[in-house]
Amino acid sequence: MSAKRKTLKSLLEENTQLRARLQETEDTIRAIQEGEVDALVMRGSSGEKAFTLKGADYSYRVILETMREGAATLADNGMILYCNNRLAELLNTPQEKIVGSFLQQHVSTSDHEAVGDILQKDSMSTEIRIKAKSREVPVLVSTSFVDLGETRAIVIIMTDLSKQKKFEEALRSLTYELLITEASERRRISEYLHGNICQSLGVAKMRLQHLHGLASKSSLRAPLHDISTMVDDAITHIRSLLTDICPSVLYELGLSDALQWLADEISKNYALPIRYNCVGKLSRFDEETRILLFQTTKELLMNIVKHAKANTAFISARMTGSSIRIQVQDDGIGFDPFKKNTPSDYGGFGLFNVRERLHYLGGHMHIASEQGMGTSITITAPCKLKKKRRVPKKKSYL
User: Fold this and answer.
1) In Å, what is the CA distance from 55 to each residue of 60, 122, 368?
2) How does pLDDT run across 191-210, given as a tens digit for each residue?
3) Which of 328, 174, 358, 353 has the alpha carbon at shortest distance from 263?
4) CATH fold of 252-390, please?
């Protein structure tokens, strides 16, 4: 056999071997891609080493499938490329029907704008409501992007907020009930002080005055005068306490007059000029709403007194459809309402309380403020009209 024929034969054999190795390599790559390979054994200068492939991938898949948060991978246009079992549970939809659909299809219509942000921003965290058959589920969505070379994918994690929202609602309900209970207890104490202590002191004052007249030439005249003065002081203090605990104007004359009285009292006691303006006639509210709006306005005014360093304040109230809107303004130092935490030196927790109370009633609060430019806070609450109840006028012995 000539050398040329031998060379051709060896080349053919080498080509056959290379094809076999290429086919083996392709089969290996396919098996790796499809998750059929557990490990690879590689020879190196230090001997053979085993590299686990399926095990590593499997552990990540186990984490995704067993985690209590919903997880999904999205394309740039919002198409869902993958979702785990938990997300399927949250959406109450089989996985095979979710994959290939678009995120927008599973999100409440009111949150479609948020979906746009999810698909465009590099990373974010926001609350949305997803549709689960006949109900909507509140979830916290966290997103990030994964670079896949020529394209990229969006990874989202959804945390069910249903229990948290129920807890928050229960907390709001409890806060509201405490407010109403406190107001009821204040009124009960006020009525007791007025109907018992004040009346007793009033009778004692009249008798002392009578005795004082009888003892015009007696050495008892001066002590009786001193005692009468002490009774007068006690009556004055109790009047002030009654006003602070439960102003009767709130129950007897309605919200508008109560707000005017509040403005006058704070102006007088704290030397802060407060103007009050009521546009139109305020409808008669149920007791709970009236108490809430009065206490809220008082809290906002006291914030101005304590923290705003204002020269003047202004209150306006008006009916807007089926709601009432009360605006409290000042020309004080102002603050940044967009900070994550409202500054404690402007009554941060108090403002949080106001917001929570209003939210329970179905109302809301809007804050407009700027450093050095004063503050304007607007509270809005729905009117809960009830049949007018006559409040009997009580006789005063003071």
Assistant:
1) 9, 31, 57
2) 778 778 888 888 888 888 87
3) 328
4) Heat Shock Protein 90 (3.30.565)
112: its two tokens:
């479609």
d(CA 365, CA 159): 28
CATH class of 55-160: alpha beta
In the chain, alpha helices (H):
3-33, 54-66, 85-91, 95-98, 112-120, 162-192, 199-214, 221-245, 249-252, 255-270, 287-303, 348-361
How many residues are present in the chain?
398
State the angle between helix axes of 162-192 and 221-245 in degrees (0 to 180), rounded to the nearest 10: 160
Taking the domains of the chain in order of start, what are their residue ranges?
55-160, 166-246, 252-390
Amino acid sitting at position 68? R
> Residue 110: which H helix or E strand, with range?
none
Helix axes 287-303, 162-192, angle to 10 degrees: 90
DSSP-derived secondary structure letter, 193: I
The three-point CA angle 139-366-378 to 5° equals 145
- Report, as ranges of residue numbers, the positions in the chain whose pLDDT lies below 50: 32-33, 42, 49-56, 340-347, 385-398
Count of Cβ atoms closer than 10 Å to residue 307 Cβ:
19
User: What are the respective helix, strand and coil percentages of the chain, to the nearest 5?
Assistant: 50, 25, 25
Packing angle, helices 287-303 and 348-361, rounded to 10:
160
